[in-house]
Amino acid sequence: GQNIDQPTEMTATEGAIVQINCTYQTSGFNGLFWYQQHAGEAPTFLSYNVLDGLEEKGRFSSFLSRSKGYSYLLLKELQMKDSASYLCAVREDRGANNLFFGTGTRLTVIP
Amino acid sequence: DAGVTQSPTHLIKTRGQHVTLRCSPISGHKSVSWYQQVLGQGPQFIFQYYEKEERGRGNFPDRFSARQFPNYSSELNVNALLLGDSALYLCASTGQNNEQFFGPGTRLTVL
Question: S-S: B93 plus which of A73, A106, B25, B110, CB 3.0-4.6 Å?
Fold first, then answer.
């Protein structure tokens, strides 16, 4: 089976840095994805890690350790518009390109 | 370029009815996946289609079915609707690097 764990909620201050952790246990692994989802909207793609290490893209970075079943999303220079849910998703190596999502972390950025 | 499009955006049905949801992937993408997202949860995989063939199926009852057309658009059908089918239904098309891009979703309410 699959299990993906993320904190349910986090709060951070505008201009600060926040790290959202994700741990996973899956029968296979072929990549980990992070998505941002604002309330009432569809998820938008943020990052994709398939090898260990850090991927940086502007204010957002994502890290993966396959041996530990662990990833994090790092958001720098937080802005109010970053208030959203952040979804961690794993693709198992099954041939089908389906993603297994965690329940998401709701981030609130305060002034 | 247009992103993933879905129709309708909102839909209200009553128990026992059936519904058809439609999706057009990003131009050039041949794979479409369907997800169900209930409030407060991450998306849950329903189906994946590639080149008109089913490549994966999630843990959903046979009331759920889908198909993909020669132009790579797709339909999701749900029969004998239950109250618990109320959710946001998301369609995603898969890019070259296996990232999935989501459409705006169809919000289905079953009364």
Answer: B25
Contact yes or no for A97 and B55 at CB 8 A: yes
**Which segments of chain A does DSSP mark as H helices, in order?**
none
Identify the segments of chain B with pLDDT beneath 70. Answer: 1
Q: Which residues of A touch B90 (CB under 8 A)?
A: 42-43
A44 contact residues in B (CB cutoff 8 A): 102
Distance CA B53, CA A37 (A): 29
Asked if the model's pLDDT at residue A56 lies above 90, the reply is yes
Neighbours of A11 (CB within 10 A): 11
**pLDDT value, residue A96:** 66
In A, residues 22-61, which contact B (CB 8 Å cutoff)?
30-31, 33, 35, 41-45, 48
Q: Tell me if B109 sits within 8 A of B11, measured CB to CB.
A: yes
